[in-house]
Amino acid sequence: MKAPNLIGVFTTLISRDDISKVISKIEVPALVIHGTSDAAIELYRAEAMRAALPGAWPMVVVEGAGHAANLTHPMPVNEAIICFLESLNFQ
Question: What predicted TM-score, i.e. pTM, was given to this entire model?
Answer without folding.
Answer: 0.80
